[in-house]
């Protein structure tokens, strides 16, 4: 039992705590702004360097346009792609569709993600639809090959970004499906894991 003299300071401390609240001076829940539920929360904007890294492009060597492509290790963005993509894996193009409005065409590639991935995926999706618009870097390749893209395999780097319409947007890069690219990707992933805090 506490003596009466020691109880008074304790009562004062408890009374002060009750007025301040259980969080010791934090804003009460009803005064906090409501957190909005946003499907884009935490997604980066697709601008600046992100547009170079995830450039919506198909490397010409990946479709046989250039047999003497540069070494994957000389690609200044390969390491960053491998370390920041939501999905890094071999993919197969299952469908190719084209929407045309006047003389403007948009290609849609339905791709299937292969297993095992080359890096631990940050997105559970196993299929994606990649859009190739007239302003996309891959448009020339898509126009030249068209439906022959169906059945081709690539090593894909896919990442979600905050979209202007309030929904996440997918941006990507497709590299040749070769042992050399796969090895360079795996090395980049391991380097990223070793340098992580």
Overview of the molecule:
This protein starts with a helix and ends with a helix. The protein has helices at 4-20, 49-53, 78-84, 139-145, 179-195; strands at residues 57-58, 87-101, 104-113, 127-132, 153-162, 168-176. The protein is built from five helices and six strands. Strands 1-6-5-2-3-4 form a six-stranded mixed beta sheet. The chain is globular, with a radius of gyration of 26 Å. Helix 3 (78-84) packs across helix 5 (179-195). The longest helix is centred in the N-terminal third of the chain and has 17 residues, at 4-20. The model is unreliable at 6-38 (pLDDT under 50). The protein is an alpha+beta fold and 197 residues long.
Number of strands: 6
Major sheet size, sense and barrel closure: 6 strands, mixed
The residue ranges in which pLDDT falls below 50 over 5 or more consecutive positions are 6-38
Q: Distance between the terminal alpha carbons, to the nearest Å?
A: 51 Å
Helix percentage: 25-40%
Tell me, what's the shape? globular
List SSEs in N-to-C order. Answer: HHEHEEEHEEH
Quote the average pLDDT. 82
Largest beta sheet: strand ordering: 1-6-5-2-3-4
Strand composition percent: 25-35%
**Number of helices, counting only DSSP H or I runs of 4 residues or more:** 5
Structural class: alpha+beta
What is the radius of gyration?
A: 26 Å
